[in-house]
Predict the structure of Adenylosuccinate lyase family protein.
Amino acid sequence: MPAALLQHPFMSQTALAQCNGTAMIEAMLAFELALAEAQEAHGALPEGSSRAMRDTLAAHPFDIAAIAEGIGSGGNAAIPFVKQGRAALPESLKRCWHQGATSQDVVDSALMLLMVPRLKALDALLSRCCRAGIELMRAHQDTPMVGRTLMQQALPITFGVKVAHWAIGLEQGRRRLAEVELPVQFGGAVGVHSGLGGPGWDDLGLTLMDEVAARLGLAAPVLPWHTDRQPIHALGTALDAVAGAAEKLALDVALLAQTELGEVAEPAAPGMGESSSMPHKRNPVRCALIRGAARQVHGHVSVLLNASAQPLERGLGEWHAEWAPLIDSALLLEGALEQAATLLEGLEVNPEAMRRNLAVTGGGIMAEPVAKLLVPSVGQDAAKRISAEAAETARLSGQAYAAVLDAHPELQGKLDAEAIRKASDPALYLGSSKHQVARAIAWLCAS
């Protein structure tokens, strides 16, 4: 697969450089050495053995290509990794290596270790988005624009409210990710720590599990979770929730940036958004990258969800199917949020275009408040009919809605022009928009 051309552009390049085969080897080694240290501390390994293993293996050149090839016969990366590690140790230490562990302990724990810096990076990017969102909300809390439902003009809102929804969605995702635990995995062959030694060691397994978690900076689970995939389910769905929020932002921006609307635009940059054949175009490329990454995350998470029920004490293909989608989801989301943060920080907002689009219907967008104004004078049915007729006339003739209403024969002598003008002014019909922006900012700042 030409990943560098088709897959990697949607991902964070920083994350790609950090989350590679070498990092996976280092994470697996970190688990094995933490386990050995904990075992030695409880007398299950000879004194000094964990340090000797660390000294030997920390600089050992593990053969990534050979480990990758070995997955074809062993089924996972831990089996050839453990073989290479044991072969590199002196005879006196071979029995101390990987004692009481199973391949799933190594792989699951390594994946959790790989996710630690990724979640920190995602949190930092989401915080950037939040700060940028708050700045936009403050700047545009009173900027009126068209609110659209079913892709059609509906009633006025403010741009500050729109940004508030973007920011709140992203922040809700950030808080959800922050609650996700990354637990260590250690249970041995069938999850009950039966490979630790002879009689008298049966109560050591859970203690070792907790201590390895502490040494690695991971959460300590209640029990080993070999076929209890709730940690993966929680992590995957949290990543997907953030992806959905980022996709919503990108979709809205792309729609508002259409030539005919022109209410916002992506930040300008040399070559950004250029077309291969049309020099005049300024394509919303950042939005496309965000949405492309998010769609892939949604697909990857469906794999994780479909692998959540695993048989007996070890998954048969379900566990194996989780690895790539989990890591790819994090890398894709990090790439999407890098684009989202840049998008929000440099978003070009065009209030004049927003005012122009509010006037596209000649003011007919205000038919609802006008109908309410007319009810006391002409009754419910007539009010609705007259306001709709006037809106259509304004749209077809290009006249101002207020002028059409003022000239309507059924309204002569019943309403003054000032009352009609106020009722048909979008800037005076923004509901709780300003209060919503203030409430959103307070909630975001309280995080």
